[in-house]
Design a protein that fits this description.
The protein has ten helices and 18 strands. It is α+β, with helices and mostly antiparallel strands and 425 residues long. The chain folds into three domains: 106 residues, RNA polymerase II/Efflux pump adaptor protein, barrel-sandwich hybrid domain (OB fold (Dihydrolipoamide Acetyltransferase, E2P), Beta Barrel), CATH 2.40.50; 90 residues, Dihydrolipoamide Transferase (Irregular); 202 residues, Chloramphenicol acetyltransferase-like domain (Chloramphenicol Acetyltransferase), CATH 3.30.559.10. Strands 9-18-17-16-12-15 form a six-stranded mixed beta sheet, covered by helices on one side. The N and C termini lie far apart (62 Å).
Length: 425
Amino acid sequence: MAIEILMPALSPTMEEGTLAKWLVKEGDSVESGDLLAEIETDKATMEFEAVDEGVIGKLLVAEGTEGVKVNTAIAVLLDEGEDANASPTPPAAKAQAPAPKATSPAKAEERTAPENVANGGPRLFASPLARRIAADKGLDLASISGSGPKGRIVKADVENAQASDKPATTPGKTQPAPAAPASPGAEQVKKLYADREFAEVTLDGMRKTIAARLSEAKSTIPHFYLRREIRLDALMKFRSQLNQSLAAKGTKLSVNDFIIKASARALQDVPDCNAVWAGDRILKLKPSDVAVAVAIEGGLFTPVLRDADQKSLSTLSAEMKDLAARARDRKLSPQEYQGGSFAISNLGMFGISNFDAVINPPHGSILAVGAGEKKPVVDADGDIGVATVMSVTLSVDHRVIDGALGAEFLQAIKGYLEDPISLLA
């Protein structure tokens, strides 16, 4: 019996993805576990495996098709000897709308969630999430320009739109401040530069997600910032000694490895900072799961080092190198870049002295790390000398962590980095 192969949900939050590449062709025999396709989400490209055996009867979605909704039929699987024109049966556990007809790949891209269209009005293509947000904000979808495939309205379009009507006044209640004017649309901006040469770059899924999440983070999270300077001379000397000892094993520790370890230990010392915001409550984590920002072409990953406080420096170093390499190839699984309560963003290798990082929700804080620089310092005896000093800034979600608590956490990180031997205890 012919069955449909559906677009998989490769993470709990995935709603759609890009069918980047087919690894099979029509007529190929497959068994459970064989690789069928490469699926690109907003964060990574992952391989999709067959769960049944049979023959690939039809490929319904072309390679490179963007915005393929989860549970959309992307191929038809046949039994041996079965007619390729047999009507496919959707998987029992995935009961959906009637199975789509075997159409050309271009048609498959147009399959979207059912649309509520006014009689006689034009059809609006919008994701279910975009519709829900529009309803909550009192927005008219017809007034919003879509940036998705074929003009489809997506979450970011609705979030950047401004309500057309003000909410009714409630007696006795103070009216909220008027919303900020909506950002100008693409066509408006392009008109400003009509007489200048420019290249237009279409946003991919990752860039759209980064834009939406960071806009949400800065507009909804009450950030505050704590800054400290950390002397690195003892750490640099200790690191050099360890690297000489580890050279035979091919291990080379970085300053960032020490920062990861110090932060993980500090989360255990100040457990109230090992927390995330969960909408109407705070979740306090027990393990020290530390996320580390990794720049890749066109975006950013934050792979998570789990139980980092329990791992040796050399183990953390090897794990970080592996995660960073696979992040740059977009080969991380969702489980490897989701979670954690705290993140590190290090721009010191670019000579940046200090900066403020944006919290990655639902994390409670993020540490921005600058470069180590030679500076004049005054020691405990009042003598002036020169030391290697690194500036760090802790961005904190005030809903999760109060000022004194954040200061205690940052002091704990500083203590470990200025006394690095304590990290081995």
